[in-house]
Write a structure and sequence with these properties.
The complex is a heterotetramer of chains A (429), B (383), C (187) and D (224).
Chain B lengths: L24 E5 L11 E7 L2 E8 L7 H5 L4 H9 L6 H16 L5 H30 L3 H21 L8 E2 L2 E2 L7 H23 L3 H7 L7 H6 L5 H5 L6 H4 L20 H24 L19 E9 L2 E9 L7 E5 L1 H7 L1 H5 L4 H11 L3 H5 L1
Antiparallel strand pairs in B: 1-2, 2-3, 4-5, 6-7, 7-8
Chain C lengths: L13 H20 L3 H21 L3 H25 L2 H6 L7 H21 L17 H9 L2 H9 L3 H22 L4
Helix pairs in contact in C: 1-2, 2-3
Chain D lengths: L14 H21 L25 E2 L3 H10 L3 E6 L2 E6 L4 H10 L5 E9 L7 E9 L4 E9 L4 E3 L8 H12 L2 E3 L30 H7 L6
Parallel strand pairs in D: 3-6, 7-8
Antiparallel strand pairs in D: 1-2, 2-3, 4-5, 5-6
The chains are: A mainly alpha (429), B alpha+beta (383), C mainly alpha (187), D alpha/beta (224).
């Protein structure tokens, strides 16, 4: 058994490729733990950032600066009574959030956090991802129907129509990115996610900057479609509070409702990681080809440690500025512990970075690169997460027919045009 | 309660044979609905998403103010007036006091008039700020709500310092003002003027050129000038349709004749024009307050009004420009200390009547926007 | 088929095979027996997904991906749309098995006979027992060996069979226009 | 926001005291009534014994203007033009109502009907005053048209003249019980449909609130 475990460590293939179920399972667990931590962090960041946009403080009471708020919410939702409406279709009502969750999480099996850091590198990576994300619509449609009342029905119809129409635009934008992958020396593009990032690496350019306007337009379309796909910000017709109460999840409460929220956040992270992989060069650190001298590698490998150090410093600043009232003593201690933790991680990362630099091929070096890949990937995804929150704070909501009009009359033609032009430009150059 | 159009009646199971034609859906919006600004119930007849017709069911907040008036003396009725349009309580009080003063043929002293103008215009800004915050929230923009309420707080502080109350202020008395302005009144108002002017620009940057805001408000809920006049619509809704009419200019009352300010009007009477008109009105109010605070005369604040007010027999009608429109008082006096009949002409009640023709053919999301842009307060609609 | 857990194990392990096909069969039965339309739609989705799994086992990932996108993600969503928009309570009142079920049974049996005979006669078509599996090769290589790169499918559709592809898209266009005209009363 | 006015601060005056004010209103009402028809005669201050010492307050004076002359000629005695404290109003006979209003809107451009309301004088034989308050945008001028109708009599609706009259007349019907003929949808607007009685009538005491609608629908014993 141990060789089964150790034999994989040497290989540079993803567990799926290497057919190694054990490590695939480990990767799956790591990714799902990572995503849930990300969802918890996202919950806190969204509430605090939104609050600061709106000149208010956001959650401050539960834990220092509201840090324990997500846990409090999770606990509350678990303890809340889970009401199933009497008229509702029991089985379908129970299954709906699961379909949503299933769709949101199966996408992660294909997302590459590094050249070999993905659960499995299917050669139909993108196709699989689009397919599974279209399954998410089923969850919503069925949830709306199962609640058996006016508003959820209309909410479900609206959001599924919206997701279906934006999926088309999203698909076409993705295709134009894939067309770009095929322009490397071998001439044959690839659908596999790791292949796409490697294509960007070989071509030495992020696809967002390739054939300058085209890549950017395709990226723009994907960015808009992705917001609509997850029912967020200006396109959140489904849960437009002011009109249809709360859209398809009106009748849900307690843990079942939180599954929908979990699915929504997971879908957000999944969709933005697709965008990062396709257009922003996945796990590559910025300027891989220009500044590839070892010194630059070292500097960039310090970044993870520095960011965690900065976070620790901010947390420490927080403890210093905490008012001296006795009520805040516990919060001050809490924050200090949190700062200490962050500081510890920062130290660890810095040590690995230094160690990795000296021994060029040892375990430390591999580990250092691994951290670097994951760090840059997560950094880019978090930029998108911030955009989601920013949209929610500033934009009012589109009306449903305007939303569909944009989906079909604006996004679709542009994405088709970009696809055709990219193909032509690709053939010429 | 009442057997109006029962919302569930249309979902009868023996649907027409052909499955394709969708039957009309009757949706009940309110009275407990986040976007109906109080207890308004609108029954919408929908074909899919399009609104075929609406019927407003009101009266949930009816307290019978006019019946109470017949059993109160003139001074006792004064606080009730604030409870009607509780968002613009100060202008309600101004309207009532001036009506009774006209009945008594008494003139409030100049200083009282200036104080009244300052407080009423501050109240107009506060009312428009509350309108903007809730209207933007209904259309989905969360942030303006917090900005407008932060700035509105400054006005409410001034009210509280002056007359002890923030919302239902009961600031004026028949014949003038009860309280002399507190020590730092002019300074506070001046600070407020410099504080809020850039803030209104802040709202504008957030919304005026916001593509989605334009998309949601441009030619939504259009009402022509002729329809507006026929339906008796007044205030910013009328001015947005292009009718240049403001009681403060047409029939000046209090000290409005001394100030110069423009009346902003719109062209095609849609939700966006009403938004622009109200934003411009806020700026005009700032100008009025500035002139009033600089030119406030010295002198008494209370006219010679008898202790017990017994107006002579007769009836008069007096109206002022409240933030929502023309707020009128028709008082019939029979010579006793209690009014024989007080009829309040509520601008929100009459403006709400225009909802039906403004909303026909629009979508459900627009109904919310139009209710928001009419800026109705149910306390005034139901009285 | 060698043991499941060896390093280069192919996907087509007996356990998965029986599970997926079992799921597909159960789903199929559920589709026709459930009284509630949405339940049968969900059962159909389960069937389609398990069939997609079977494609994967036949080292045809592209077809599996398309199956998920087109069938499970696209058509089934529209199925549910129709079920929700049309007033299904009325449909459920009609008699469950109408009178012409014997004809249905006969048709089913002939179809079954066809399948069996195709399988028996065509045994030679299928590769015999073993799969030419080399140790350590992973699913991608096997797929390449059998069906070639994913782009082989691309080359076929836009290479030799472009004409058929265009006709199909024309057909779809007509179908869409028909649907729009039927529902939209006034265009 | 809405303050619960169910129990008004000062307890309503006990039944007894109500009577004198009613008498006073009655006695003052005729003063108002006879003052009006006898307008051309010098206003008789004697009719008001209540305030002998106080100088007689302002009294409605005849209002003369070209507009008035035109209609005086046309309708003669059925129309009286008066002004009180600078506010002009016509006191007209019920028969003039639909076409006088239409004339005022078309010829005299009183295109904005500010308000329609009513006042209840229980002691008079024609108990109700129905009042239209009109305003003319072009002339920036306000006028009131007042007519007296008996209890139970109906009056032609002016919805066809001004669209705003729809809800205003519904409220007058709801509060006073005055029927408006030709109104598209005359039913209660503020009070629930099943409500009995019309609150703003003088004979509808505040204590009468406890009727069976309150008991049935709100399930409370008494409103007070």
């Amino acid at each position: 058994m141990p060789n089964f475990i150790m034999s994989y460590l040497g290989s540079t293939l993803t567990p799926g490729q290497a057919g190694n179920q054990f490590w695939a399972l480990i990767y799956v667990l790591i990714i799902f733990a990572g995503v849930s931590v990300a969802v918890i962090a996202m919950n806190w960041i969204e509430r605090k950032a939104l609050a600061h946009f709106q000149i208010r403080l956001g959650p401050m009471r539960v834990g220092p600066h509201g840090l324990l708020q997500p846990f409090a919410d999770a606990l509350k939702l678990m303890l809340k009574e889970d009401i199933i409406p009497s008229e509702a279709d029991q089985f379908v009502f129970w299954v709906a959030p699961l379909i949503g969750l299933l769709a949101a999480f199966t996408v992660y099996t294909v997302i590459p956090f590094g050249p070999s850091q993905a659960v499995s590198d299917m050669n139909i990576g993108i196709l699989f991802m689009l397919g599974v994300s279209s399954l998410g619509v089923l969850g919503i449609v069925v949830a709306g129907w199962a609640s058996n009342s006016h508003y959820p029905l209309i909410g479900a119809l609206r959001s599924s129509a919206q997701m279906v129409s934006y999926e088309v635009a999203m698909g076409l934008a993705v295709v134009s990115a894939i067309v770009m992958t095929s322009l490397n020396s071998t001439g044959t593009g690839t659908l596999s996610m790791i292949g796409i990032v490697q294509a960007q690496q070989q071509q030495g350019v992020w696809f967002i900057f390739k054939f300058f306007p085209l890549g950017f337009i395709a990226f723009g379309i994907f960015a808009i479609a992705m917001v609509a796909e997850t029912n967020r910000a200006p396109f959140d017709m489904a849960e437009a509070e002011s009109e249809l109460t709360a859209g398809y999840h009106t009748e849900y409460s307690g843990l079942r409702w939180s599954l929908f929220m979990l699915a929504e956040y997971a879908a957000m992270i999944a969709v933005s990681s697709i965008a990062v992989t396709l257009w922003l060069g996945g796990w590559m650190r910025p300027f891989p080809n220009l500044l590839h001298a070892p010194a630059w590698d070292f500097i960039f490998s310090l970044f993870p440690g520095l960011t965690f150090g900065a976070l620790a410093a901010i947390a420490l600043l927080g403890t210093v500025r905490m008012p001296s009232h006795s009520f805040f003593k516990i919060q001050r201690v809490g924050l200090a512990v949190f700062a200490g933790l962050l500081g510890l991680i920062a130290l660890l990362l810095l040590v690995i970075a230094v160690a990795g630099r000296s021994a060029d091929s040892g375990l430390a070096a591999r580990f250092n690169d691994g951290i670097g890949y994951v760090y840059w990937f997560v950094l880019k995804v978090s930029v998108f997460m911030y955009l989601f929150i920013w949209y929610r704070a500033t934009w009012p909501r589109y009306r449903f027919d305007q939303l569909m009009k944009i989906g079909w009359k604006v996004m679709l033609p542009i994405s088709l045009g970009v696809l055709v032009v990219t193909a032509i430009v690709g053939v010429i150059f | 309660m009442n057997d109006r159009l029962d919302p569930m009646s249309n979902l009868d199971l023996d649907a027409p044979d052909t499955y394709l034609d969708s039957n009309e859906l009757i949706i009940n919006m309110g009275p407990q609905h986040p976007a109906t600004h109080g207890v308004l119930r609108v029954i919408l007849k929908l074909d899919g998403e399009k609104v075929l017709g609406t019927e407003c069911v009101i009266g949930y907040l009816h307290r019978g103010v006019e019946k109470i008036a017949e059993n109160r003396t003139y001074t006792m009725f004064n606080p009730y007036v604030d409870r009607m349009d509780y968002v613009a309580a100060v202008s309600n009080g101004l309207g009532y006091c001036e009506a009774v003063e006209k009945l008594l043929n008494v003139e409030a002293p100049a200083r009282a008039k200036y104080i009244r103008v300052i407080l009423t215009e501050l109240n107009r800004i506060a009312s428009h700020q509350l309108w903007l915050g809730t209207h933007a929230l209904d259309i989905g923009a969360m942030t303006p709500l917090f900005y407008t309420f932060r700035d509105r707080e400054e006005i409410l502080k001034i009210f509280e310092k002056y007359c002890g109350a923030r919302l239902t202020t009961h600031a004026f008395r028949i014949g003038g003002c009860q309280y002399e302005t507190y020590a730092g009144f002019e300074k506070d108002v001046k600070n407020f003027l410099t504080f809020v002017a850039p803030k209104i620009d802040e709202y504008e940057t957030l919304l005026t050129t916001n593509r989605i805001w334009l998309e949601r408000t441009k030619n939504v809920g259009v009402i022509s000038a002729a329809d507006a006049i026929a339906l008796g619509v007044t205030g910013p809704v009328l001015r947005a349709s292009g009718v240049k009419w403001d009681l403060r200019k047409a029939q000046p009352y209090a000290a409005y004749a001394d100030f110069d300010f423009e009346i902003p009007i719109g062209e095609n009477g849609d939700t966006y024009d009403r938004y622009l008109v109200r934003m411009a009105e806020m700026r005009q109010s700032l100008r009025i307050i500035e002139q009033a605070v600089n030119g406030i005369p010295e002198g008494p604040i209370m006219g010679k009004v008898p202790k017990v007010i017994k107006p002579p027999v007769g009836e008069i009608y007096h109206s002022i420009e409240a933030p929502k429109g023309e707020l009128g008082y028709f008082i019939v006096s029979d010579g006793s200390t209690q009014p024989y009949r007080i009829r309040v002409r509520p601008p929100s009640f009459v403006n709400l009547q225009a909802l039906d023709i403004m909303v026909r053919g629009l979508l459900v999301a627009d109904v919310i926007a139009v209710i928001g842009t009419l800026d109705i307060v149910l306390g005034e609609v139901d009285r | 088929m060698n043991s499941a857990l060896s390093a280069g194990a192919p996907v087509a392990t007996p356990f998965f095979f029986y599970m997926l096909s079992g799921l597909a069969v159960i789903g199929g039965i559920l589709v026709i027996t459930r009284r509630n339309a949405v339940h049968s739609a969900l059962a159909l989705i389960v069937t389609l997904l398990s069939v997609a799994g079977l494609y994967l086992m036949l080292y045809a990932p592209f077809v599996a991906g398309v199956q998920i996108i087109v069938y499970a993600g696209g058509i089934m969503v529209l199925f549910l749309f129709v079920i929700m928009l049309v007033n299904i309570e009325r449909a459920s009142k009609d008699r469950r098995f109408n009178r012409i079920w014997p004809i249905g049974l006969v048709a089913a049996c002939t179809l079954m006979g066809l399948f069996v005979s195709a399988f028996v006669k065509g045994r030679a078509l299928f590769p015999d027992r073993g799969m030419p599996l080399s140790e350590g090769s992973n699913t991608q290589e096997i797929a390449k060996a059998l069906y070639g790169e994913v782009n082989r499918a691309g080359q076929y559709t836009f290479g030799q069979y472009t004409f058929a592809f265009e006709i199909a898209s024309l057909l779809l266009l007509v179908a869409i226009l028909g649907a729009v005209i039927m529902t939209k009363k006034k265009i | 926001m809405a303050e619960d006015v169910k129990t008004p601060a000062p307890p309503p005056p006990p039944e007894g005291e109500k009577k004198p004010t009613a008498e006073k209103t009655a006695e003052a009402a005729p003063a108002v009534a006879d003052a009006k028809p006898a307008a051309p005669v010098k206003p008789a201050a004697a009719a008001k014994p209540a305030a002998p010492a106080k100088p007689a307050g302002p009294v409605p004076l005849p209002w003369t203007s070209p507009l008035v002359e035109k209609y005086k000629g046309q309708y003669g005695s059925a129309l009286e033009a008066l002004t009180y404290l600078g506010q002009n109003y016509f006191a007209v006979d019920r028969s003039l109502i639909p076409n006088l209003l239409r004339l005022l809107r078309d010829e005299e451009e009183f295109d904005y009907c500010v308000d329609i309301t009513a006042v209840h004088y229980p002691k008079r034989e024609k108990q109700f005053d129905v009042i239209w308050i009109l305003y003319s945008f072009p002339r920036n001028e306000r006028v009131r048209v007042k007519t007296q109708i008996a209890d139970g009599a109906s009056i032609p609706s002016s919805v066809s003249i001004w669209a705003t009259a729809n809800w205003l007349e519904r409220e007058v019907y709801d509060m006073f019980g005055i029927q408006f003929d030709g109104h598209p949808d005359l039913k209660r607007i503020l009070l629930p449909d099943g409500w009995k009685g019309h609150p703003l009538r003088k004979d509808y005491g505040i204590l009468q609130q406890d009727q069976e609608w309150v008991q049935i629908n709100l399930g409370i014993e008494s409103g007070q």
